Amino acid sequence: MSTPATRQRPNILITGTPGTGKSTLAEQLADKFKFDFIEIGKIVKDFKIYTAYDEEYQSHVLNEEKLLDHIEDRMDSDSGGVVVDYHGSDFFPERWFDFVIVLRCANAILFDRLKARGYNDFKVRENVECEIFGSLLEEARDAYPEERIHELRSEGPTDLQKNIEKITELVRTWKQ
Hints:
The protein is of the alpha/beta class. The chain is 44% helix and 19% strand. The strands form two sheets. A five-stranded parallel sheet has the order 2-5-1-6-7, with helices on both faces. A two-stranded antiparallel ribbon has the order 3-4. Belongs to the adenylate kinase family. AK6 subfamily.
């Protein structure tokens, strides 16, 4: 079982409300650092790690225990070097992540992104409200030490580049 002290490379969780750019950022970071990329939503669908389908939210209901079992060996590896993309954070073991990046986005931009994805009105409203109230930032703050959490704006290509630079600096100075 690895810990931040035993890992050779840091593990990074990219979290935030759907539509804030998690997948784009996570993929680019994984490519840049040659880290493994774990897209939780894709794993849940591909390996049927869910208990039901919620019609109202138009999404699968995650089986958290099965998911944790599914990725545990990779996350507990002393080699580290994993970027995980998921909108939730509080059910992952604290020891798995050295950095928890919470992406934030202006409500009008988020609204347009979610509508463009074809989300129904209920799902758009729920996600925009989640962003307004900072629910996922609070969830991260309740689950991880404050020094691991980094709240970053994610509203377009300029922010994406700034976020890559910021995280590159975090990784570069990780064990110093």
